[in-house]
Amino acid sequence: MSSSLTVSLLLVVALADPGHPTRRTLRSRLNPDCDETCRGRNVTTLHLSADGPNDTLHYLWDFIGNPSVLLALTPPSTSLNISWEDYLARRENSVHFSEKPTYSFGMIINKIIEFNDVNDTALIDTADIANMNVLHLEYFNWQRVSLTQNNDFVYLNMEGNSYHDTAKNISRYGSIKLSLRGFCTLDHADIVPHMLHTENSTQIDIILDNLQTNETFSNSRFAIELLMVGGGDPDILMFVDPKKSLDDEHTPGIFEIVEVRTPPYRELNGALNGGAYLQWRPVSYNSALRDVTSSTETMQYSPKRISKYTNAVKNSMLYCYYGNATNLLLQKLTISLGSKGDGFYKKTNYLTWTFIIGYGTPPEERFSSLVIMIISIGLGLPLLIMVITGLYLCIRRMPKQHGNVYLSR
Ligand SMILES: *[C@@H]1O[C@H](CO)[C@@H](O)[C@H](O)[C@H]1NC(C)=O
Ligand SMILES: *[C@@H]1O[C@H](CO)[C@@H](O)[C@H](O)[C@H]1NC(C)=O
Ligand SMILES: *[C@@H]1O[C@H](CO)[C@@H](O)[C@H](O)[C@H]1NC(C)=O
Ligand SMILES: *[C@@H]1O[C@H](CO)[C@@H](O)[C@H](O)[C@H]1NC(C)=O
Ligand SMILES: *[C@@H]1O[C@H](CO)[C@@H](O)[C@H](O)[C@H]1NC(C)=O
Ligand SMILES: *[C@@H]1O[C@H](CO)[C@@H](O)[C@H](O)[C@H]1NC(C)=O
Ligand SMILES: *[C@@H]1O[C@H](CO)[C@@H](O)[C@H](O)[C@H]1NC(C)=O
Ligand SMILES: *[C@@H]1O[C@H](CO)[C@@H](O)[C@H](O)[C@H]1NC(C)=O
């Protein structure tokens, strides 16, 4: 009995070990060093730097052209310099770091794809071209809704409205809401699905709100295509790893987490390093409440290599940084929203997707103190009952023996 007590105590101690969370110091600037040029235009380029003891992680969030994110790891006290005239004209090499980053990686939210899911499979790879419409995010009119910056986090909320595809002369009503959040330490985000983030990661939340669907499509669903650009061996495909998670305490009903790792990159000293990752819970909510009853699933597809620079890169901040660089990793990743039998997009005209983009090791969920308490009670209570029953039996037996002795006298 004492050994099982020791085991359960050890288990509790092992599960409770919180590790040593590291902290980075956040600094953020909107449109850094852009005065006259940016004043007349609704430009949103946010530079966030997260200083650690030995290095700085820079993030650049940009909403000119296709929304994109750049992540760069540099030596400490490296500064960022944007040549605004060139930057706004989307010219190459208009973004500089004063010291060359040891690693950099970028992501473009490239397309929203509407597909007509005639047979309710919820899979975009079974739909044919005639049953698909592509929306390019550069054709939305992007407005900054709010920006909150303090020592612990930076929140940027953007909204894209009044879609107008100038090439095809197609307009649509509805909006895309993008929330980007940068953090300084390991914690859970406050919005459902409460993703766990590290000091090295940014959370991106996408809401497709009342987006007009194609009237010739009876069963419209949406998918999101991301374009990944940057460091890492371009010949190796990104690694997609859906895994079961320990518990659903933070995301009720969802026991899975999907991780995408970029191929490793070679450091200056020759060592291989893991690079960047994406992480999400395969859940999408069809109402702003984001409760269990309003959840549906997401589905990811194998990454695909892109052989040459596309217009998507050319019309994004990543081109300003990488220019015509060759030997870059260039892959696309598609995620569709919705699952079989969920009533399609038309059910509520609202869908969300939340993911984390970060550098280093993706965080692993640990048991929280609440779960540990429940486990301890689960293990401890039977033990306690056994001890009490044992004591009770002993005590009850004793006076009986006494009585017997008394009677036999
Ligand atoms: C900038 O945004 C504001 C609202 O946030 C809008 O009223 C204004 O027309 C926009 N200006 C341009 C040049 O797009
Ligand atoms: C920073 O560098 C020092 C000395 O090289 C090392 O001891 C320390 O572990 C490093 N800190 C982090 C967070 O990497
Ligand atoms: C930024 O870069 C431009 C062009 O490379 C240079 O002229 C300028 O002095 C730099 N500014 C800073 C603050 O480093
Ligand atoms: C839908 O199902 C029908 C009948 O099973 C099949 O002929 C058709 O090709 C399917 N369509 C798609 C887009 O999968
Ligand atoms: C609806 O889809 C059809 C077929 O793909 C396409 O020709 C048409 O332009 C689409 N309409 C809109 C408004 O996107
Ligand atoms: C674009 O479409 C609108 C209606 O959808 C039409 O009134 C307009 O003439 C079109 N413009 C061009 C250049 O085709
Ligand atoms: C990069 O590519 C563009 C278009 O392909 C070209 O106009 C430009 O000169 C190239 N720049 C360099 C530095 O090669
Ligand atoms: C965060 O990035 C630093 C790089 O400086 C790395 O040493 C550390 O392991 C990363 N943390 C996590 C949790 O991945």
UniProtKB/TrEMBL annotation:
For the keyword Acyltransferase, the answer is no
Topology in the lipid bilayer is annotated as: Single-pass type I membrane protein
Q: Which residues cross the membrane?
A: 370-395
List keywords of the entry alphabetically. Glycoprotein, Lysosome, Membrane, Signal, Transmembrane, Transmembrane helix
Q: Where is the secretion signal located? A: 1-16
Check the record and name the Pfam families matching this protein.
Answer: NCU-G1
Superkingdom is Eukaryota
Does this UniProt record's set of keywords contain Plastid? Answer: no
Q: What family does this belong to?
A: Belongs to the GLMP family.
Q: What is this protein called?
A: Uncharacterized protein C1orf85-like protein
Q: Which organism is it from?
A: Camponotus floridanus (Florida carpenter ant)
Phylogenetic classification of the source organism: Eukaryota, Metazoa, Ecdysozoa, Arthropoda, Hexapoda
